[in-house]
Design brief:
Blueprint lengths: L1 H22 L7 H12 L11 H20 L3 H5 L1 H23 L8 H11 L3 H10 L6 H24 L5 H20 L1 H15 L9 H19 L4 H15 L5 H25 L4 H5 L1 H22 L12 H11 L4 H12 L5 H33 L5 H8 L18
């Protein structure tokens, strides 16, 4: 009975979050933030209505897996192969080097220790899976800003996942390298022979489309098999399941580079309809708010370090980028830096690994997770405020082009073709 009452409270939170988000002006608070906040409210720090037992934990793990599956599915390999991908990779390497220095000199923890390495990895992550619904809510996923954020988010998830697998794995370094070599080989093949892989993928999908719209749902089931299979492989070799889930999404995207409308709709319905909201609500229930009182300096220092270590290199890396007809403005670069500093799922994963290895205390882990939650709360809001102020300050009321751009909702500024909209909203 307790499991179902907890599940009922979680599903009610999942229903309330989008309703509240749509009632707020300009959707200033993302739905993801509300899910976490509602999770805190119904968890032990609030009403205590939700008790996370093994059953709820399993559903939450599936939610995390679906989050990274869709994150990998949204990855554009062409962007990673482009100059944007090179810039994003260099920015992450700089972030990781800075994080190691910050851990050594500011947090009084050796970067050679498991806890120090875990804190450093947490500082360099970008929550691509968390950003995806935010970008979709704000209709930024197909804009220049959104695409660059997705590139930095991809690198900011992929490289920390690899770092977790290599540096924090409880298995031997040899076995970790072996599994990573398998994933790397798959990635290389998808880079080298994308056309052949895509043609094969289309043939497979055409083959299994028989009754795919009926009760069989063959395409979705094949994707879930790939998700669970690769996640099981990763966990079996004592790597984090996010590596397998993310790789599954990458493989499906390369096999279907243009996507598949039916598959996209079904995956979104399955993932965003139940599993992913459940994961965020459960993540909120596990946040210990006492760390705000007990470790306020550590929490503040980590949050500031997160902004500087991750946000500044991303901001600098966007200098001179010309994704459209014009180079990125300072406001756009600032928004990219803010969005890229949004972190949570990787922080949850890295602290879980460190705590399981008895290398990190529960209070420290809660502080890091709470810092990641604050980034989800604060960074998208700051980016939205910056976007609004940038458009207002940059607009010349006597310039017809600026007037047309403002009517188009800033689409031209974000890299889309400017179209005049008559919708007052």
């Amino acid at each position: 009975m307790e499991v179902f009452s907890s599940l009922l409270a979680i599903t009610v939170c999942a229903l309330l979050a989008p309703l509240i988000a749509h009632t707020l002006p300009h959707r200033v608070v993302p739905e993801t933030v509300l899910l976490i906040a509602l999770g805190i409210a119904v968890g032990p720090a609030g009403t205590g209505w939700v008790h996370v037992g093994p059953e709820i934990s399993l559903l939450s793990e599936l939610g995390l897996a679906f989050l990274f599956l869709l994150a990998g599915y949204e990855v554009d390999m062409d962007d990673l192969r482009s100059g944007h991908g090179v810039r994003a990779t260099l920015a992450w390497l700089v972030s990781f080097a800075l994080a190691l220095l910050v851990v050594e000199f500011a947090f009084d923890a050796s970067f050679l220790s498991v806890q120090g390495t875990a804190i450093a990895i947490a500082m360099t992550s970008t929550a691509l899976g968390t950003l995806m619904p935010i970008l979709k809510e704000r209709r930024l996923e197909n804009t220049a800003v959104g695409r660059i954020v997705m590139t930095h988010g991809t690198v900011g998830e992929m490289l920390p996942i690899i770092a977790i697998a290599l540096l924090l794995s409880s298995g031997s370094l040899l076995s970790s390298l072996g599994v990573l070599a398998i994933f790397a080989l798959t990635a290389v093949l998808l880079f080298v022979i994308p056309n052949q892989a895509r043609r094969w993928g289309l043939r497979v999908v055409d083959l299994i489309r028989l009754r795919a719209e009926g009760t069989a749902q063959t395409t979705v089931r094949l994707t879930v098999v790939l998700l669970v299979g690769l996640s099981t492989l990763a966990v079996g070799f004592k790597l984090d399941l996010v590596l397998g889930a993310f790789s599954a999404g990458l493989i499906v995207r390369q096999l279907l580079p243009q996507g598949r409308k039916e598959l996209d709709q079904k995956l979104d319905g399955l993932a965003y309809g139940f599993f992913i909201p459940l994961f965020f609500v459960v993540s909120g229930t596990q946040i210990d708010l006492r760390v705000i009182v007990e470790q306020p300096l550590f929490l503040t220092a980590f949050f500031i370090a997160l902004m500087l270590v991750r946000g500044v290199p991303v901001f600098i890396s966007t200098h001179g980028q010309r994704p459209g007809y014009h180079p990125l403005t300072l406001g756009e670069r600032g928004r990219i830096g803010l969005y890229s500093t949004t972190a949570l799922p990787i922080i949850v994963a890295v602290t879980h690994v460190a705590v399981s290895a008895d290398a990190m205390g529960e209070e420290t882990a809660s502080t890091l997770v709470l810092g990641g939650t604050l980034s989800v709360l604060v960074m998208p809001v700051l980016a939205a405020i910056m976007q609004s102020r940038t458009r207002t300050s940059d607009m010349d009321p006597d310039d017809p082009e600026d007037i047309e751009e403002e009517l188009a909702g800033g689409a031209a500024r974000d890299g889309e073709a400017p179209t005049v909209s008559h919708d007052p909203t």
